[in-house]
Prior knowledge:
CATH architecture: 3-Layer(aba) Sandwich
Strand content: 25-35%
Shape: globular
CATH class: Alpha Beta
Mean pLDDT: 94
Low-confidence stretches: none
Amino acid sequence: MSPGTGAALRMLAATVDAKAVAEIGTGTGVSGIHLLHGMRPDGVLTTVDSEPERQQFARQAFRAAGFASNRARFIPGHALDVLPRLADSGYDLVFCDGDRAECLDYLAESLRLLRPGGLVCFEGVFSDGRTVDSGPQPAEVVRLRELLRGVRESQDLVPSLLPVGDGLLCAVKR
């Protein structure tokens, strides 16, 4: 994650006064640290990843960054198996940085998870410039194009594409 993307996430979490954030793709914890810095002091980050080793690394990174253990809830598993168990309208922000082939499914789950006025964000939507390249593209890029089109055309969302890092697609749920 680029420093600009991290700064944008921190600012967006603060803008929605986030108390509950869901993250798809824990990774090494970099995005989670940025989100936690922007969240309310009593906020909780729920982070989902299919690799428990990554989550253990992120748990250590959060601790090293000064966050109490009760500020993050780590759920191992495939996102599309875990997300349906999370509360409807229970989240202020959903950050998606998981399997790009599943981005449309993440969007559908995010709309269910978000409260009205909540924010969904997708990292890496430029796909190194391939989403705007007119040549034949891999399935991952085709799915990202479908995501961009779906968010843009949705009556339930107010979208913006931020040119930070490799593209940060954000949308507020009406």
